[in-house]
Amino acid sequence: MKKNKPQIIAFNKIGSSELGYITIAEEQKNVPFDIQRVYWTYYTPQDVIRGGHAHKKLQQVIFAVSGVITFNTEDKEGNKETFVLDHPTKGLYLPELIWRDIKFSHSAVLLCLASELYDEKDYFRDFEEFKNYVP
Ligand code: TYD
After folding, report:
1. By alpha-carbon position, which residue is closest to atom 15 of ligand 1?
2. Helix, strand, coil % over all residues of the chain, rounded to 5
3. Alpha carbon of 15 to ligand 1 centroid (Å)
């Protein structure tokens, strides 16, 4: 995979409709970085838009383990894309320097695998600052 653009990674599932399923994420195998942090978000109201930021260095793979989560992304060149996470096997790879807005369906649960520990200094929370940044 090319690591310079947002993209869906299709994860395998093991199981059956009778017994249920399991999906596995492994660093440097189907996740293209070492995982330093995992977080999850839940109970996000449907009328709320989360995100509204980009990262200088952080890479992420993000799942909707339940529900549907929609990402609108924009890179520094102004390329906009929409990604709909509507199945637990779909992981959204986000490289560094991608602005994102996120919407959640009722009872959606977001799981994020992250390449770095939490660092508020890694965030752009101002869109113009993000666009003007020269790496
Ligand atoms: P933020 O990344 O802004 O969430 P979202 O993109 O879902 O709107 O994080 C929300 C709050 O949680 C913010 O105050 C920072 C804090 N936070 C941590 O302390 N550690 C973390 O690992 C994360 C992801 C967030």
Report:
1. 120
2. 5, 45, 45
3. 33
